Amino acid sequence: MAEPSIEDIDYLVGPATPHFAYQIKARVRGLVRDLPEGHPVRRYGEEKLELLERLAHSSSKAEEGPLERRDRLGWEQLPSHGAASATESH
User: Fold this and answer.
1) Which residue, among 68, 66, 64, has the nearest Cα to 87 in the 3D structure?
2) Does residue 14 sit within a domain?
């Protein structure tokens, strides 16, 4: 297999949903696993692994548009009801 590229990672992560975040995370991990530490594609992949972890505990990637307010009634009971960019990893 050819060396993975940033485009390969984007191809996997781009359509990710909370439902499939862990499956995609496993594929990205496998894609970058053999790249040397510090390799730009590996670093990019590791950033996307963090996004996928947050996404698994979210309801949307929601990179654009308004985010759910944390002071919203019930947020404490449903902390996953927000964007991956605003949800803390567990």
Assistant:
1) 68
2) yes
The upper half-sphere exposure of residue 49, i.e. CA atoms within 13 Å in the direction of its Cβ, equals 14
Overall number of domains in the chain: 1
User: Is the pTM for the entire model greater than 0.85?
Assistant: no
By three-state DSSP, how is residue 31 classified? Answer: helix
| pLDDT tens sequence for the chain (90 residues) | 689 999 999 999 998 988 899 999 999 999 999 999 999 999 999 999 999 998 887 766 655 555 666 676 666 665 555 556 554 544
Range of the domain at 37: 6-83
Show the tokens assigned to 10: 């984007």
**CA atoms of 90 and 57, how far apart (whole Å):** 8
The answer as to whether 1 is a domain residue is no
